User: Fold these one by one.
Assistant:
Number 1:
Amino acid sequence: MRRIYLDHAATTPTDPEVARVMSLYLTDRFGNPSSTYSYGQEAKKAIEEARVQVAELIGARDDEIVFTSGGTEADNFAVKGVAFANENKGNHLITTSIEHHAVIETCKFLERKGFRVTYLPVDVYGLVDPSDVKKAITNKTILISVMHANNEVGTIEPITEIGKIAKERGISFHTDAVQTVGHIPLNVDELGVDLLSMSGHKLYGPKGVGALYVRKGTKLVPFMHGGEQERRWRAGTENAPGIIGFGRAAELARREMSNEAERLTYLRDKLIEGILERIHHTHLNGHPSGRLPNNVDVTFDFVEGESIVLNLDLEGICASTGSACSSSSLEPSHVLLAMGLSPEQAHGSLRLTLGKWTTEEMIEQVLDVLPRIIGKLRAISPLLRNHR
Ligand SMILES: Cc1ncc(COP(=O)(O)O)c(C=O)c1O
């Protein structure tokens, strides 16, 4: 059976060109980048090239990029790093109720350490209101952290507006751009951010590598203590193959992004329209137009998302009920609840995220299979029986 992979928000397949470059640094060019002989210096040079490639993708300078073990570490680094570096200035952080767990759990940890955190609400589309950010600021606020686009519903947040507010008040501004980097054009100066998180495996690079953009002059404490790697921001022997693969993925994304975003938007809209047309009692989650080009998130009344995912899997289609890290838990999505959905509706959600190798034929196949699955599940649904 041919597989149709529609879970690119969870992870993307590694581009073969990325894998090819990485394999060189796993085999022949295995040297430690800190070693002074040529094996080491070869790896060091390639890491610095990757830094330039990643910086160029987001309009940053290469010395503002710190490589990390992924998006989670970049989020931890940004939030804890700024909090601990500014303790003498204040103890208040502002974030949103729809952040990835990497930010939310870090904020909860800081609350246990005596910091105060405001979790801003969102509207029915999952949008944060910049005026809510303004109202939440106190003279103790040291960090604002708002994600660029939500990983579940795909809504793109008004980062530029919030960036202006943060700048006016002299507050550090972080955005988790794990879902947008390499997918939509993005420039750190236009967004007005001081810190920005990225992850390799969301843009056809490898897993276990990411980066934090740190604007020159931003006050934060290092994430790992030890050697002098990453200009002392993040000690530890560099994941050279990972970083070099991430760099190549960033370069490919920069070249392919605009055509790819256009192609995916067409397929996304075809899938959304097809689902809403063919399956009644179905709602689109997230913003109708201000959303990621590859994101389709829908709620089917009277059915469980988990059952849909299992049935799709039997047909060779990979999809998810929400973010990968929460899809193994039976808690309804905190994002959908924050958008005002009931726990039952949140349980009936399905996320389909498209990618580089998704074709129109695959979308047609999903549109053929999905109504059958929903029909079958509704026929045996106690939720529907209770509703009647
Ligand atoms: C918005 C967002 N932030 C952070 C992460 C975590 O990134 P990583 O898997 O690289 O740790 C993810 C991954 O799902 C994400 O979607």
Number 2:
Amino acid sequence: MDKSEIAGLLKKAGDIFDGQRNALVTSRIEANKIIFVGDTHGDARITKKVFDAYSDYADMIVFLGDYVDRGKYGIENLMMIIEKLVDAPGKIIMLRGNHESPMINRNYGFMREVEEKIGEDAYKNFAIMFSHMPYAAVVNSYFCVHGGIPQILGKVEDIANLPIGDFNPDNPVAKELLWNDPNDGIRGFIPNLRGPGTYYFGPDVVEKFLAENSLKGIIRGHEVADGFKSNANGKVITVFSSTYHGMSSGILVMEGGEIKEMVKIRL
Ligand SMILES: [Mn+2]
């Protein structure tokens, strides 16, 4: 894939995000067989395995963000998913992670990867595309997001009103959707070790959020886990799909609206 081909695909992806972003949080999407993929972090081999194993099976594949940085194959990983998205926009959902941002890519490897593999001026096209990615989706009454519940979000539909085009989101709701983590040992929100403007949310926050929005649970990425972990009495499921940290890669399979199984992907 050459430089102009990549730029063209990134533009197409941005246009698809613009067309679908609001519907993802306002129209309550339903599908029968769904695969949820957590952080892949430049682990293109895992993403290829998921597509090889599940493309025919799945009606929809939901990626929960963090496609780049850490692993060496961020471009390959991201472009593989974008090609599938462009081929079948209704089948692939690509949510934004906190690593889809220049401030983070400068420190964790992706900006340098792009400069080395494509060229000095190519990174901006990625940054623009990232800034158009959706922050969340409601699928089969599950709230899908990279990080978690923000302090001041009332209704999931309000996510449709967030500003678009922010390279490094500083809107508190947008930032916390990308950065927050569940914590079973607390009530309410407390500051998160990840840094200013990020928070942990307790099981009580989860209960209230799900009830107010008539949702069944939350499926998210963001935290390193041995494939997956659960919080808030199983109401929050974290999926971690990269092997980067020496963890095993996990994905979640949903069928008929229920979580069917968690599967470890082996290379
Ligand atoms: Mn993350």
